[in-house]
């Protein structure tokens, strides 16, 4: 790999306050989990969100301080370190409870705390009247989630990252299953958790492979000083190092410059890993490249295993299936966890380990390839969904695919940038949908919406801006990040599949990406037009369309189908009416805008007109929409200004891996940007023609014409059914087989052993009864009989005794003679 | 001329002892048994006197014999008292009737 300049080890600056950032949400979660229900029961419900939002605000404030400190440092040395204590030391590996911020994790921390804070504020309005009556539980989980996520991005080693990785999975589970009394929603949480386990397995395998690969024979190259690395010895060196300092002394080092020494060998620490891999002088990179496991290049295997982890967390093919179901959670959760933060953890991880991925073109190609497939696959599903949150869910999957295209082709900063822009516009969209759902009285089916722009102007405008951004039109952020990704994909030429260089893969990915972008624009504007234009269709219901819905029959046949969501909604169940009746009874935050709820307190079905949401919600929407536009300033392409984008410059110290891209003239870049805008415009145009005001009959006609294709896509290509067939049924069959094995073979064996034992016991019992007892009794009987017969000697007659005495005397005399 | 020596006396003593033992062992009459005891004691006395005369000299054997005669008198007194008690209990002086210690 050619470096513009040789990279040195990272210099760290101490920042002893970093631990405060995750601490605040943790404390908030603790307070809400332990005391929250008391607050809520004693009528101080307000305290719950004061704690929740307060924790987030404090965390954000500290994060901003850290950002200012980081920015004041020179480019090369932007790395804040805060080590609290040593968690454990084993041989030469030390794991500290330490936090680190480099530009990349700083960006993540700012996204998490800022958008997290806004979403907490949004939740006040959204969850106040919630039917679950567990305001405290919601905020507790939400704070705990933020804590885990901060741990994930701030931890300076893999152990903390993995802890956060699992923590966000747990919180995601807790929040998807927030309405746990609903079986379907509880199942959705479980599905998310289980699918993520598959990914986590890959992640862990990748970590262990990496750890293993760093050990080995490189010491023989003569570059390392200090003790050589002997795996056997290191494994058994428990007595060797009991403290971090001793462990440090044991570690082999390589001198890389003037007094600069780099620790080499297996490590869990990101900075140590980065230093030894990035600095060529250590020879670690070469060593990793040379290694093979069962004939596979080790680096490719590591990359792919880690990417499997990313697939699970970031919902890529084929592990994306949990994300659409995760929409069962409350909408703020979907916005925070399933759009802005947690699902980007995979992208973050790949960007974090860019120096590892960059060493393996095969791993990168797979990342980009899967990303592109996911992007177009999920976008196509988004075309025909009616549930507004499902549309956004598939959109999220698709956008995550774009991010993976970015980090896959080596445009790490572009991937990270798309992560940032996506966090803003997708949070806006999700929260906008939340506002719509609240306004339409918990209706999620877009066919029952329409014309909402009249009732909810702020929501409408923010939603439109976010649509503008995601569709990729200029001056909103999505355009800059998406076009940068696609441009880099087109110009990438180092990708390789199965060890064969595939320069055509980049342009192919570009082609897929641009089609997916067109689709994105289409389905987003479709959702916009269906929701906000035309006449309000709520109340009347669309039973006829429901009846011909081929999904309905599928849902009926497939009783466990978790997406029969909107089918369950139109029924005016009594619980629902009760909830709305309760609306009037509770004091609402910013109640002025929400008074409409009180006015139709008694309605059972979905009557009543939609209304704008309270100010906490509209304020957050406005801020996020403004953000969705403003973050575009960070990524104005170099072709426009001649200066590299601000974010690229900012992230440069963290994203050191340099990947070769084809040099193309600026005019090409402009052309591709035009194509990107054109793609967005085409999507918009189709959506406008087909769904504007909901009057066109063309969509229905097209649906009739292509009913077969429509049915397949509407049912998400039957992927869930495929999973059912390929994974769940074999698992069940396997478990049944094992159960049979257990019930018949193992139980039989156990019973057989039992029977044999019982037989032995019986024989033993017989022996006991007859032999042992018999012997004892025989002795007793003999003694008794002997006594009885000897009793006769006791005649009581003196003369008899005399005979005895005489006989004895005679015997003594005779004996005397015999002895002599 | 028959020479009378120690052996003759020892044979006489043994005869007396044997007859005494035979009497004690076989007589049913308690008085007879006591008489058998007298025979045994006197058999012993013959031995004492004979050994004194032929072996040790002096008079200690004779004196010992006198003590035995006194002892025999005392023993006969106690024995006859027992016989009387026996008779009072069993209305018989047959020693076979006094077998209540049996078993």
Q: What this model shows, in words?
A:
The complex is a heterodimer of chains A (820) and B (103). In chain A, 66% of the residues lie in helices and 5% in strands. Chain A is mainly alpha-helical. A 3-stranded mixed sheet of chain A has the order 1-2-3. In chain A, strand 4 (253-257) and strand 5 (260-263) form a beta hairpin. In chain A, helix 1 (20-41) runs antiparallel to helix 4, helix 18 (412-439) runs antiparallel to helix 20 (477-491) and helix 20 runs antiparallel to helix 21 (505-532). The longest helix of chain A has 72 residues, at 719-790. Chain B is an all-alpha fold. Chain B is built from 3 helices and no strands. In chain B, helix 1 (6-26) packs antiparallel against helix 2 and helix 2 packs antiparallel against helix 3 (60-90). Chain B is elongated. The mean pLDDT of chain B is 90. Chain A binds chain B through residues 791, 794-799, 802-803, 806, and chain B through 21, 24-26, 95-96, 98-103.
Query: How far apart, in Å, are the first and last alpha carbons of chain A?
Result: 117 Å
Topology, number of strands of chain B: 0
Amount of helix of chain A: 55-70%
Mind telling me the C-alpha Rg of chain B?
Answer: 17 Å
Structural class based on helices, strands and sheet pairing of chain A: mainly alpha
What is the overall silhouette of chain A?
Answer: elongated
Question: Numbering strands along the chain, what is their spatial order in the largest sheet of chain A?
Answer: 1-2-3
Number of helices of chain A: 34
Helix content of chain B: over 70%
* Sheet having the most strands of chain A: 3 strands, mixed
User: How would you sum up the global shape of chain B?
Assistant: elongated
In terms of DSSP E residues, the strand content of chain B is under 5%
Please mark out the parts of chain B with pLDDT under 50 across 5 or more consecutive residues, or reply none. Answer: none
Could you tell me the strand content of chain A as a percent range?
Answer: under 5%
Oligomer: heterodimer
Q: How many beta-strand segments of chain A? A: 9
Alpha-carbon distance between the two ends of chain B: 59 Å
Largest interface: A-B, 10 and 12 residues
């Amino acid at each position: 790999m050619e470096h513009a300049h040789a990279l040195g080890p990272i210099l760290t600056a101490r920042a002893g306050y970093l631990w405060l950032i995750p601490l605040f949400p943790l404390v908030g979660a603790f307070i809400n989990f332990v005391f929250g229900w008391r607050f809520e029961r004693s009528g101080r419900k307000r305290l719950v969100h004061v704690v929740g939002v307060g924790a987030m605000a404090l965390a954000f404030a500290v994060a901003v301080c850290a950002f200012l400190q980081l920015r004041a440092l020179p480019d090369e040395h932007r790395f804040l370190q805060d080590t609290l204590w040593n968690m454990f030391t084993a041989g030469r590996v030390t794991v500290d409870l330490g936090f680190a911020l480099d530009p990349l994790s700083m960006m993540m921390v700012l996204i998490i705390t800022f958008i997290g804070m806004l979403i907490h504020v949004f939740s006040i309005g959204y969850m106040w009247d919630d039917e679950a009556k567990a305001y405290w539980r919601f905020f507790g989980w939400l704070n705990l989630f933020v804590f885990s996520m901060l741990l994930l991005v701030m931890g300076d080693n893999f152990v903390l990252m993995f802890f956060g990785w699992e923590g966000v999975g747990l919180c995601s589970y807790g929040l998807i299953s927030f309405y746990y009394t609903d079986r379907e929603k509880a199942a959705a949480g479980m599905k998310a958790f289980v699918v993520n386990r598959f990914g986590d397995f890959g992640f862990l395998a990748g970590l262990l492979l990496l750890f293993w690969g760093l050990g080995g024979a490189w010491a023989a190259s003569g570059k390392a000083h200090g003790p050589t690395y002997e795996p056997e010895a290191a494994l058994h060196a428990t007595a060797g190092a009991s403290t971090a300092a001793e462990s440090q002394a044991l570690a082999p080092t390589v001198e890389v410059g003037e007094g600069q020494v780099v620790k080499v060998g297996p490590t869990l620490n990101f900075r140590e890993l980065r230093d030894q891999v990035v600095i060529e002088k250590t020879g670690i990179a070469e060593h990793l490249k040379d290694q093979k496991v069962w004939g596979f290049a080790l680096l490719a295997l590591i990359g792919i295993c880690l990417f499997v982890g990313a697939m699970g967390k970031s919902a890529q093919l084929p592990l994306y299936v949990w994300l659409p179901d995760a929409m069962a959670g409350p909408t703020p959760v979907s916005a925070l966890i399933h759009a802005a933060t947690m699902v980007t953890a995979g992208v973050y991880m790949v960007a974090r380990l860019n120096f590892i991925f960059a060493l393996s073109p095969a791993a990168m190609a797979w990342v980009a390839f899967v990303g592109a497939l996911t992007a177009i696959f999920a976008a196509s599903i988004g075309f025909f969904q009616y549930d507004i949150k499902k549309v956004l869910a598939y959109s999220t999957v698709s956008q995550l695919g774009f991010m993976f295209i970015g980090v896959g082709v080596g445009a790490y900063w572009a991937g990270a940038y798309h992560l940032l822009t996506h966090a803003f516009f997708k949070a806006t969209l999700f929260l906008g949908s939340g506002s719509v759902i609240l306004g339409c009285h918990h209706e999620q089916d877009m066919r029952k919406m329409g014309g909402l722009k009249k009732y909810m102007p702020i929501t409408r405008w923010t939603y439109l801006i976010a649509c503008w951004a995601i569709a990729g039109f200029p001056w909103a952020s999505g355009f800059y990040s998406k076009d940068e990704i696609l441009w880099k994909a087109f110009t990438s030429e180092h990708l390789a599949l199965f060890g064969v260089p595939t320069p055509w893969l980049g342009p192919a990915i570009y082609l897929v990406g641009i089609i997916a972008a067109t689709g994105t624009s289409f389905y987003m504007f479709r959702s916009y037009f269906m929701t906000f234009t035309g006449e309000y269709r709520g109340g009347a219901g669309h039973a006829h369309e429901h009846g011909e819905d081929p999904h309905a029959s599928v849902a009926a046949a497939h009783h466990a189908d978790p997406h029969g969501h909107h089918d369950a909604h139109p029924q005016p169940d009594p619980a629902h009416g009760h909830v709305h009746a309760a609306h009037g009874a509770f004091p609402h935050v910013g109640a002025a805008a929400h008074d409409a709820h009180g006015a139709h307190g008694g309605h059972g079905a979905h009557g009543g007109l939609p209304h704008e949401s309270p100010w906490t919600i509209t304020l957050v929407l406005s801020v996020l929409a403004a953000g969705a536009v403003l973050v575009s300033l960070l990524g104005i392409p170099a072709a426009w200004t001649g200066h590299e984008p601000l974010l690229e410059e900012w992230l440069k110290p963290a994203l050191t891996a340099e990947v070769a891209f084809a040099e193309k003239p600026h005019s090409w870049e402009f052309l591709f940007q035009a194509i990107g805008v054109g793609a967005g415009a085409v999507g918009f145009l189709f959506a406008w023609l087909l769904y504007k005001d909901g009057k066109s009959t063309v969509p229905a006609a097209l649906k009739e014409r292509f009913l077969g294709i429509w049915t397949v896509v509407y049912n998400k290509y039957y992927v869930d059914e495929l999973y059912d067939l390929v994974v769940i049924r074999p698992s069940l069959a396997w478990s049944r087989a094992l159960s049979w094995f257990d019930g018949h073979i193992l139980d039989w064996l156990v019973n057989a052993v039992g029977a044999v034992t019982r037989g032995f016991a019986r024989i033993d019992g017989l022996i006991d009864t007859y032999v042992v007892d018999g012997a004892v009794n025989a002795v007793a009987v003999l003694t008794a009989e002997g006594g009885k017969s000897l009793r006769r000697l006791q005649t009581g007659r003196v003369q008899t005794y005399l005979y005895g005495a005489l006989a004895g005397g005679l015997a003594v005399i005779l004996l005397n003679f015999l002895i002599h | 001329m028959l020479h009378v020596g120690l052996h003759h006396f020892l044979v006489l003593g043994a005869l007396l002892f044997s007859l005494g033992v035979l009497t004690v062992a076989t007589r049913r009459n308690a008085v007879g048994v006591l008489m058998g005891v007298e025979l045994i004691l006197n058999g012993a006395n013959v031995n004492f006197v004979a050994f004194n005369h032929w072996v040790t000299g002096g008079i200690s054997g004779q004196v010992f014999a006198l003590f035995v005669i006194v002892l025999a008198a005392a023993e006969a007194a106690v024995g006859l008292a027992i016989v009387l008690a026996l008779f009072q209990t069993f209305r018989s002086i047959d020693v076979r009737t006094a077998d209540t210690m049996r078993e």
